[in-house]
Amino acid sequence: MSLLPCSFFLRPDVVQIARELLGKKIITRFAGEITSGVICETEAYAGVTDRASHAYGGRRTARTEVMYALGGTAYVYLCYGIHSLFNIVTSDAGTPHAVLIRGIIPAEGTEIMLRRSGKTKFTHDSGIGPGKVSKMLGIHYSHSGFILNQFDNPGNNTISLEDMGTDIDPDKITAGPRVGVDYAGTDALLPYRFMVQELILHSKP
DNA sequence: ATACCGATTAACT
DNA sequence: GTTAATCGGTATA
What we know:
β5 and β6 (97-106) form a beta hairpin. The chain contains four helices and eleven strands. The strands form two sheets. Strands 1, 2, 3, 4, 5, 6, 7, 9 and 10 form a nine-stranded antiparallel sheet that branches. It has a two-stranded antiparallel sheet with strand order 8-11. The chain has 205 residues and is α+β, with helices and mostly antiparallel strands. The protein has a single domain, classed as Roll (3-methyladenine DNA Glycosylase, Chain A).
């Protein structure tokens, strides 16, 4: 296992990055509590030209300003007044691309994640749903702007992304339209949602 | 200053 | 399958 390099997030094709994030591990350390999960569902939001994106048309507000940061920054915002939704900003600074993490398979720190989600045991879909992802990993919208893979934050808090040393079999990846973006006209039909129904990892020597 | 609504979830029937 | 919960962001005035 190794940290994903900055260059991974700085590439221009957000759709490809969304696809490649499947099978990667996201790890958080908050208040000394370490939790992690393997990404199994993502959605790409393609910046100023994507009507489903918060940055459509180059819009900049206090909330969306973070989307214009350098790739590898966290964009977290509140949805329905309750849920923190975690996105990874990609591409160069000034290009507001982002990938929404919609689902993880719980890995380390399962007891902590159960506690955070108010559950006593996991089911097959405990980590599926963008609000649940943030809840389990302890990510809050106040973390928007957090730099990923940075280890010198106060309290040693970190959000990091690791390569598992394995790749998802492309045949196991399903692409389809994004959730809840009906307002986006023809862009609502774009196949920018990716998931791995069976998260089968292919071992690498 | 005010009103509307959402990249959702959990708890129901 | 249906629906209540819940509040910051954004547009409108």
